[in-house]
Specification:
single chain; alpha+beta; Arc Repressor Mutant, subunit A; 2 domains; five-stranded antiparallel beta sheet; three-stranded antiparallel beta sheet; about 50% helix; AraC-bd; DNA-binding; transcription
């Protein structure tokens, strides 16, 4: 099924480095690309934005976050989001592909930064004044370099982006549940599981299926997920199902019966109970919000 939300490509923006990187101040970004970003949408790129003035809210995968001075949001490809911002909003935004980072750092992965470990991780950071000053300086340097035509421009943008993510990681690290104290092997297994769930959740709801695909026992996989997230493998499967249910209910004209079948369930009553147990409202009540 085609995505019910528009998926923005980085080539829809005036991106540098063969269309792999874009930077702007947030006010200009909104004014220039209002027709792309005014409604809920997804990206095929990474997005990082800081707000330095103004207020509002930023909804990411149906979780609402307060926008204040010093708020930073980091999104991976595929996440759904939109925002409602005050007229006095200011800040900076950068967009880039995975290839952009890979070209600059061939022996490292962007997903090793703590906010990009997992879709389970909080996409928000709220900076204090001291940290905000450091981060804003880096954003400003990226924007200035992006607007220039100086020699080694692309290399400097790559280095500044790396410094930005390092600075944000230092602030972020203390508050996340998936921390750097866990082994790299476990984190890779989590990412592999999330990828497998994303590919198969419509037809496969059993934790045993994913454990078998990963060549480990269901018990061992569950221990890994419990250790990293305090959840079970089944929790992750159902969270992905419910995220898609919310997306479809908010942006399509599917009935609950059609949604039930599409998501791989036979019993509409059972699915509705599952939805309410997870989200606190029935599918019908949820759809009325949108």
């Amino acid at each position: 099924m085609k995505s019910v939300f528009p998926i923005l490509n980085i080539d829809q923006f005036p991106a540098e480095r063969n269309g792999e990187f874009y930077a702007n101040d947030i006010r200009s970004h909104i004014d220039l690309h209002h027709h792309h970003i005014s409604k809920p949408h997804k990206h095929d790129f990474y997005l990082t934005v800081i707000f330095t003035k103004g207020s509002g809210f930023h909804e990411i995968d149906f979780n609402s976050y307060k926008v204040t001075a010093g708020s930073v949001f980091l999104l991976k490809p595929g996440q759904t989001h939109f925002w409602d911002l005050s007229d006095d909003i200011s800040g900076y935004v950068i967009l880039h592909s995975k290839l952009f980072f890979d070209l600059n750092y061939s022996k490292r992965s962007i997903d090793n930064f703590p906010f990009f470990y997992s879709v389970q991780n909080d996409p928000s950071i709220y900076l204090d004044l001291e940290n905000m000053e450091e981060v804003v300086q880096i954003f400003r340097a990226i924007k200035n370099e992006y607007d220039s035509d100086k020699i080694f421009k692309h290399q400097k943008i790559g280095s500044l982006t790396d410094l930005l993510y390092i600075a944000l990681s230092r602030v972020y690290q203390s508050k996340i549940s998936v921390s750097g104290h866990h082994s790299g092997i476990q984190l890779e297994q989590l990412r592999k599981l999330e990828s497998l769930i994303d590919q198969n959740y419509l037809s496969e709801k059993s934790a045993a299926f994913y454990a078998e695909r990963m060549n480990i026992s269901s018990r061992h996989l569950n221990r890994i997920i419990q250790n990293l997230l305090g959840k079970t493998t089944t929790d992750l499967i159902l969270e992905r199902v419910m995220l898609e249910a919310q997306r479809l209910l908010s942006a399509s004209k599917m009935t609950v019966a059609e949604l039930t079948g599409f998501l791989g369930y036979e019993d509409q009553s059972y699915f509705s109970r599952l939805f309410k147990n997870r989200l606190g409202v029935t599918p019908t009540e949820f759809s009325k919000r949108y």
